[in-house]
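Quick log. Single chain, no ligands specified.
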Amino acid sequence: MDEEIIKRVQEGDKEAFGEIVDKYEKKLFWYIKRLINQPEEEVEDVLQEVFVSAYINILGFETTKKFSSWIYRIAHNKAVDYIKSAKNRHHGGKIDEEWEENIEDKKKLIEDLEIEKDERRRVRKAVGGLELKYREVVELYYFDEKSYEEISDILRIPVNNVGILLYRAKKKLKKDLSNE
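-> predicted structure:
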């Protein structure tokens, strides 16, 4: 379905891009929100940059590839750019209640870490405190339910490294949560 919409956009149907926005807006919003840990207004600004960049570069997109990986890669890059610029501005990230509600829906992470539901707040803080390279794979795998191959495409790392990063992230989370 994405391929058909992309072809229409590439052929000059500007309104077809709205279908892409409708399909990916919420997913990318939450992905960016979890990565940058900022208020909704900041997330929306980054998300807008993602869609502008996607629209500008869509003519170069190869329809033989997976569009979702391509647009997640743009979102990843924009979020990382924001994090880098935020560090330069000395802003502190804050994990809020919406993030906790989202993790509540994703019990797979909690099950993998073998912890109780009442420890969500600790999990939320621990994931938010991971180094970006670990937080990214955890977010994509557990919260956006991306496959190793999709994560590999988005982060531009070998598939084997995805598994290694997930393993190390879970190990760090278990350690951090057991030290509290």
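The radius of gyration is 17 Å.
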